[in-house]
Amino acid sequence: MRVILFILFVFVVKSTFSQYPPAAGLSGTTAIYKDSSVFVNWAKSCIVKRGYVDISNSRDSLSTGGLEIDVLGKADNFTVSLGDSGEAVVSFYPAITNGSGFDFAVFENSFDGQFLELAFVEVSSDSVHWYRFDAVSLTPTDAQITTFGLLDPTKINNLAGKYSALYGTPFDLQELSGKPYLNIDSVSFVKIIDVVGSINGYYTSFDSQGNKINDPFPTPFFTSGFDIDAIGVIHQLTQSVNQLVLENITVFPNPFVDNICSYIKGCGSYELVDITGKILFTDEFCDKVLINTNSIEKGIYILKVNVNYKSGSTKIVKM
């Protein structure tokens, strides 16, 4: 009996004092600065579903901070605020692929690396089936972390927002190997889901081990919730590696005047870009892409499509 009690004591102590990588700038950190040469690309599009300013007080007021365009390109401390339980779906072209070590990093705007707003991270190859990284929060839950309360990064793992502004929290796709419907060598979508840090209430967020996640709550401002700045790609799919290419993407009419339509079996996402690479339209679809182009000028454009682990593009002309 004493042996069993001792083993249980050691397990509890070890679990309680487990340490994860520390804050940016400290020895052993996994934080990656925005200008690091490891980044080869950045997010191409973002769709945000706003969450509440204070989910415990009012379901009528949503966060309004920032714009979806603030997530695109390199981290620059311009963010979009998700609000309590808000979500952002971010897409990538070429797709993120599984390489050696970390594969992408998520940037938030913590001003000091201790006031941390956290988020779950999920990935998908087809925008239909989503898989979450196993997040862990060992922050004590005997008292609520208040509005401007501080967190210890060494108690946090696989939650975005662990590091200070301009330092990305990295993720390794290898951790999700073997998941059905997920091709870790072709991940085109990343979803960021705000953690509701309340330890009281039915809206409490739980980590992968069943622990309540305690982070600053409430944050009843128009910038409520997780503030996503950018997602940097470390490993991306190259055309020479990607053999899963959509063929015969047919757009009609082509040339077109006002609307374009394409039937593509399956669910995925599309981007319409101009010849400079600027994204004009982006959205998700199932079986049919339909775009009203009244707002764009005559010229040559590229329709890019990602669906069912495959990607492809075709040239179209507006008359």
For the termini, the CA-CA separation is 83 Å
What is the correct CATH architecture of the largest domain?
A: Sandwich
The rounded Rg comes to: 21 Å
Q: How many structurally independent domains?
A: 2
Average pLDDT level: 88
Q: Which descriptor suits the 3D outline?
A: globular
CATH topology of the largest domain: Jelly Rolls
Helix and strand pattern: HEEEEEEEEEEEEEEEEEEEE
Q: Main beta sheet, described?
A: 5 strands, antiparallel
Number of helices: 1
User: Spans with pLDDT under 50 lasting ≥5 residues?
Assistant: 3-16, 239-244
Residues in helices, as a percent range: under 10%
SS elements, strand count: 20
Give the spatial strand order of the biggest sheet.
1-13-8-16-2
Broad CATH class of the largest domain: Mainly Beta
Task: Tell me the fraction of residues in β-strands, as a range.
Answer: 35-45%
What does this 3D model show about the protein?
By secondary structure, the protein is mainly β. It has two domains: 20-233, Jelly Rolls; 259-318, Immunoglobulin-like (Sandwich). It has one helix at 2-16; strands at residues 32-33, 41-42, 45-49, 52-54, 58-62, 80-81, 87-96, 104-107, 119-124, 131-132, 136-137, 156-157, 167-171, 187-194, 227-228, 230-233, 259-274, 279-292, 299-307, 310-318. The chain is globular. The termini are far apart. The model is unreliable at 3-16 and 239-244 (pLDDT under 50).
